[in-house]
What does this fold into?
Amino acid sequence: MFNNNVAGTITAEGRTLTQKMDKVNEDYWYNMWHLDTELHKNLGIKNVTQINSKTENVSIYCDTDSTDYQTVIQTESERLTIEEWYNKNIKNGSAGETMKGHESVLTSDKILNFDNELYYANVKRIIRHKVSKPKWKLKTKSGKEITITNDHSMIVFRNGEKLEVKPSEVLKTDKILVLKN
It folds into this structure.
Protein backbone atom coordinates (compact mmCIF):
# COMPACT_ATOMS: atom_id res chain seq x y z
CA MET A 1 0.00 0.00 0.00
CA PHE A 2 3.08 2.30 -0.11
CA ASN A 3 2.76 5.27 -2.45
CA ASN A 4 5.82 7.43 -3.35
CA ASN A 5 3.62 10.45 -4.07
CA VAL A 6 2.09 10.34 -0.58
CA ALA A 7 5.54 9.88 1.02
CA GLY A 8 6.93 12.77 -1.04
CA THR A 9 4.03 15.03 -0.07
CA ILE A 10 4.51 14.22 3.62
CA THR A 11 8.22 15.00 3.31
CA ALA A 12 7.55 18.27 1.47
CA GLU A 13 4.96 19.35 4.05
CA GLY A 14 7.37 18.46 6.87
CA ARG A 15 10.07 20.59 5.27
CA THR A 16 7.64 23.49 4.73
CA LEU A 17 6.55 23.28 8.37
CA THR A 18 10.18 23.17 9.55
CA GLN A 19 11.05 26.23 7.45
CA LYS A 20 8.00 28.11 8.76
CA MET A 21 8.92 27.19 12.35
CA ASP A 22 12.45 28.46 11.68
CA LYS A 23 11.10 31.85 10.50
CA VAL A 24 8.73 32.15 13.49
CA ASN A 25 11.55 31.13 15.85
CA GLU A 26 13.96 33.71 14.40
CA ASP A 27 11.27 36.40 14.49
CA TYR A 28 10.60 35.71 18.18
CA TRP A 29 14.25 35.71 19.29
CA TYR A 30 15.32 38.72 17.21
CA ASN A 31 12.17 40.87 17.44
CA MET A 32 10.04 39.85 20.45
CA TRP A 33 12.19 38.11 23.11
CA HIS A 34 13.39 41.38 24.63
CA LEU A 35 9.76 42.58 24.92
CA ASP A 36 8.43 39.41 26.63
CA THR A 37 8.63 40.89 30.15
CA GLU A 38 6.12 38.46 31.65
CA LEU A 39 8.27 35.47 30.65
CA HIS A 40 11.43 37.24 31.89
CA LYS A 41 9.68 37.84 35.24
CA ASN A 42 8.53 34.18 35.48
CA LEU A 43 12.06 32.98 34.67
CA GLY A 44 13.70 35.50 37.01
CA ILE A 45 15.67 37.09 34.18
CA LYS A 46 16.62 40.77 34.41
CA ASN A 47 18.30 43.26 32.08
CA VAL A 48 17.21 41.59 28.83
CA THR A 49 18.33 43.37 25.67
CA GLN A 50 17.41 42.86 22.03
CA ILE A 51 19.46 40.35 20.09
CA ASN A 52 20.94 41.99 17.01
CA SER A 53 21.34 39.19 14.48
CA LYS A 54 23.77 41.30 12.42
CA THR A 55 26.32 41.99 15.16
CA GLU A 56 26.02 39.45 17.92
CA ASN A 57 27.49 35.96 17.97
CA VAL A 58 24.06 34.29 17.86
CA SER A 59 22.82 31.59 15.54
CA ILE A 60 19.30 30.22 15.51
CA TYR A 61 19.65 26.92 13.71
CA CYS A 62 17.21 24.76 11.79
CA ASP A 63 18.64 21.77 9.91
CA THR A 64 16.63 19.24 7.99
CA ASP A 65 19.33 17.48 5.99
CA SER A 66 22.97 17.69 4.93
CA THR A 67 25.31 17.42 1.98
CA ASP A 68 28.97 16.46 1.88
CA TYR A 69 31.65 19.17 2.12
CA GLN A 70 32.87 18.31 -1.39
CA THR A 71 29.46 19.04 -2.94
CA VAL A 72 29.77 21.69 -5.67
CA ILE A 73 27.50 24.72 -5.49
CA GLN A 74 27.07 27.69 -7.81
CA THR A 75 27.02 31.20 -6.34
CA GLU A 76 26.18 34.23 -8.46
CA SER A 77 29.88 34.67 -9.20
CA GLU A 78 31.58 31.26 -9.03
CA ARG A 79 31.32 27.49 -8.72
CA LEU A 80 33.03 25.93 -5.71
CA THR A 81 32.73 23.18 -3.10
CA ILE A 82 30.82 23.77 0.11
CA GLU A 83 34.13 23.54 2.01
CA GLU A 84 35.71 26.22 -0.24
CA TRP A 85 32.59 28.37 0.13
CA TYR A 86 32.66 28.03 3.95
CA ASN A 87 36.38 28.89 4.08
CA LYS A 88 35.91 31.87 1.74
CA ASN A 89 33.23 33.28 4.08
CA ILE A 90 35.24 32.92 7.32
CA LYS A 91 36.35 36.53 6.81
CA ASN A 92 32.69 37.59 7.36
CA GLY A 93 32.82 36.39 10.93
CA SER A 94 31.08 33.73 12.93
CA ALA A 95 27.32 33.32 12.85
CA GLY A 96 27.69 31.56 16.20
CA GLU A 97 27.49 27.97 17.28
CA THR A 98 24.31 25.96 17.24
CA MET A 99 23.04 24.31 20.40
CA LYS A 100 24.79 21.14 19.23
CA GLY A 101 28.11 23.00 18.84
CA HIS A 102 28.08 23.27 15.05
CA GLU A 103 30.19 26.13 13.67
CA SER A 104 28.78 28.64 11.22
CA VAL A 105 29.90 31.67 9.23
CA LEU A 106 27.95 34.61 7.89
CA THR A 107 27.42 35.04 4.16
CA SER A 108 25.46 37.31 1.89
CA ASP A 109 26.01 35.03 -1.11
CA LYS A 110 23.17 33.65 -3.15
CA ILE A 111 23.34 30.09 -4.46
CA LEU A 112 21.70 28.47 -7.44
CA ASN A 113 18.50 26.69 -6.43
CA PHE A 114 15.60 25.00 -8.20
CA ASP A 115 11.88 25.22 -7.53
CA ASN A 116 10.12 24.69 -10.86
CA GLU A 117 12.77 27.02 -12.27
CA LEU A 118 16.37 27.97 -11.56
CA TYR A 119 16.94 30.99 -9.32
CA TYR A 120 19.53 32.32 -6.88
CA ALA A 121 18.43 31.85 -3.26
CA ASN A 122 19.57 34.04 -0.35
CA VAL A 123 21.77 32.37 2.27
CA LYS A 124 22.25 33.78 5.80
CA ARG A 125 24.84 31.39 7.15
CA ILE A 126 26.83 28.31 6.24
CA ILE A 127 26.93 25.66 8.96
CA ARG A 128 29.74 23.12 9.26
CA HIS A 129 29.17 19.99 11.29
CA LYS A 130 30.03 16.34 11.49
CA VAL A 131 27.22 14.01 10.48
CA SER A 132 26.77 10.54 11.91
CA LYS A 133 23.63 9.78 9.89
CA PRO A 134 23.84 7.20 7.08
CA LYS A 135 24.98 8.73 3.80
CA TRP A 136 24.35 7.96 0.14
CA LYS A 137 26.68 8.60 -2.78
CA LEU A 138 24.84 9.10 -6.06
CA LYS A 139 26.72 9.13 -9.34
CA THR A 140 25.34 10.18 -12.73
CA LYS A 141 26.26 8.65 -16.09
CA SER A 142 28.37 11.74 -16.77
CA GLY A 143 30.43 11.02 -13.63
CA LYS A 144 29.05 13.74 -11.35
CA GLU A 145 28.67 12.66 -7.73
CA ILE A 146 26.91 13.90 -4.62
CA THR A 147 27.08 12.51 -1.09
CA ILE A 148 24.01 13.27 1.02
CA THR A 149 22.32 12.06 4.17
CA ASN A 150 19.49 9.57 3.76
CA ASP A 151 16.91 12.19 4.80
CA HIS A 152 18.01 14.66 2.10
CA SER A 153 15.52 15.16 -0.72
CA MET A 154 16.51 15.14 -4.38
CA ILE A 155 14.71 16.56 -7.39
CA VAL A 156 14.50 13.97 -10.17
CA PHE A 157 12.64 13.80 -13.43
CA ARG A 158 10.87 10.50 -14.03
CA ASN A 159 8.71 9.83 -17.07
CA GLY A 160 8.54 13.57 -17.77
CA GLU A 161 7.37 14.37 -14.22
CA LYS A 162 9.34 16.31 -11.59
CA LEU A 163 9.49 14.39 -8.30
CA GLU A 164 11.07 15.02 -4.91
CA VAL A 165 12.56 11.75 -3.62
CA LYS A 166 14.97 10.45 -1.00
CA PRO A 167 18.25 8.91 -2.21
CA SER A 168 16.92 5.41 -1.53
CA GLU A 169 14.06 6.09 -3.98
CA VAL A 170 16.22 7.24 -6.94
CA LEU A 171 15.93 4.89 -9.92
CA LYS A 172 18.65 4.24 -12.50
CA THR A 173 16.33 5.66 -15.14
CA ASP A 174 15.74 8.96 -13.26
CA LYS A 175 17.20 12.19 -14.57
CA ILE A 176 18.92 14.22 -11.85
CA LEU A 177 19.31 17.99 -12.10
CA VAL A 178 23.08 18.74 -12.21
CA LEU A 179 25.30 21.69 -13.07
CA LYS A 180 26.91 21.56 -16.50
CA ASN A 181 30.67 21.92 -16.78
Observations:
- The first helix runs from residue 4 to 32.
- Confidence is low (pLDDT under 50) at residues 54-61.
